[in-house]
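Reminder: ligand-aware prediction takes two inputs, not one.
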Amino acid sequence: MEERRVTISRAKMSVDYPASFMLVAAMNPCPCGYYNHPTIECTCAPGAVRKYMNKVSGPLLDRIDLHIEVTPVPFKNLATMKAGENSQTIRERVIAARKIQEERFRGCPGIHCNAQMNSRLFRQHCVLDAECQERMKLAMEKLGLSARAYDRILKVARTIADLDVSPAITVEHLSEAINYRSLDRDTWGR
Ligand SMILES: [Zn+2]
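Here is what comes back for the chain with zinc ion:
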């Protein structure tokens, strides 16, 4: 997944293919399906939610940048829901952020977006001020995040800042990126 290549090995040879893809996956929050539900109580036995989540290995979960919890929308909200931003507006924002990244990685062959930053580029473009460093330290301690999750959060924060056309990562960008780690093992199911 990280190298964006797939190697197929047979007895006499092995072949390397490019495999750049976006992984999108969905799962239930727990065996009964109601963990964190706003109105229905989860009936899972103590420890069952953690056990269920542990079926997804930590290293795999670490490599998934955005964890989004989708809670049901009550009917009255569905009926009265105001129109949100349309896709065209969002598309324009994404194109603008992609342009910023194109500029940023001009002269870095094979690197087109923040997710692909190597450690040198990472240190150069994911600089945190004192307030952000403090916020990150707290999150690491509270959520028990791995070093890999730390890198991912900063890269996602960099992208949120780009969508906001902000040259610096602010504490708001960072906090949003941290919120996308809801499945990190130390918090889910406790
Ligand atoms: Zn449950």
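Helices lie at 48-53, 58-62, 75-80, 87-104, 119-125, 130-143, 147-163, 171-179. DSSP finds eight helices and two strands in the chain. We will return to this case in the review session.
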